[in-house]
Amino acid sequence: QAKKIKNSYSFFTEEMRSLNAFRADVEHELRGAIESCELWMAYQPQINADETLYGVEALVRWQNEKLGFVPPDKFIYVAEESGLMKELGEFIIQTSLREIGELQKELNLSFSLSINISVVQLMEADFLPNLLKIIAKENFDRSSLTLEITESLSIESLDDVLPILYDIQEHDIQISLDDFGTGYSSLSILRELPIDELKIDKSFIDKILYDESEKILVESIINIGKNFHMKTLAEGVECIEQVNELKRSKCDIFQGYYYSKPLSKEDLKKFLRKG
Length: 275
Ligand code: C2E
Ligand code: CA
Ligand code: CA
Ligand code: CA
Description:
By secondary structure, the chain is α/β, with parallel strands linked by helices. It has helices spanning 2-33, 76-81, 85-107, 119-122, 127-138, 155-170, 189-192, 202-205, 212-227, 240-248, 265-274; strands at 39-48, 53-64, 68-70, 112-117, 145-150, 174-180, 197-200, 231-235, 253-255.
């Protein structure tokens, strides 16, 4: 018995050590990643209830020689903790605005662009001035830009974030509350924050077809969104049955593998041409 405990303990420390090593590798490799062009943006279509295009969400991608493909979940927080988020964030904003701006002009189409912004980014002293600078440089239509802010922004940080969000809204830029329902924040956040869109997390959408209470929960979120004059967007829809159910509940916008995986700029162009 004692042996077993000892083994599971050493397994645990082993795992901890490799986790720390991985984190150190990520930090080290990330430092050169932007300059060596290892990062690019993928774009996932967002579809209106009438099946027309609403917009795209920009999602960062990283392929590294040593580490292989590293998903954003595994390196965004490292960037934040090691002071690399400012540079990375600017790359993300710059690249998305340029590529989508070019595509809109080329295809003579106008649609929304959503960019994920972490609270760490939002709190950088010159976040909004820098964003406005890039918007001006790329000549991007501000009103078709949405910033996705994750709901996990805690009540403690609310006081700091609130004036920034109002500033952003003053400039005609839209705000979407990402991963809605997964955090611990209270519903009063909906009254305090200037939110244009509620993004319902995939973890809820996953269960609506076989869990009645989950379906009711999602319906309630959609109704709350409606009552607060916010758009509602369902993330991670993978089949038509989910889409139909969500349409019955009057959800506005849909995003997920059922319509498309995140696409490279070239593949997005093909997707948009098909209409
Ligand atoms: P998120 O914002 O909640 O993004 C949704 C994630 O679900 C994306 O994973 C997307 O590829 C995936 N997804 C979309 N539809 C489906 C579906 O139908 N089925 C399944 N199984 N998955 C689907 P991804 O790209 O790995 O991003 C993970 C998280 O990383 C994002 O969660 C976001 O929090 C963060 N992230 C990604 N790109 C950026 C970025 O440019 N900046 C910041 N700050 N965070 C980012
Ligand atoms: Ca998002
Ligand atoms: Ca999510
Ligand atoms: Ca997220």
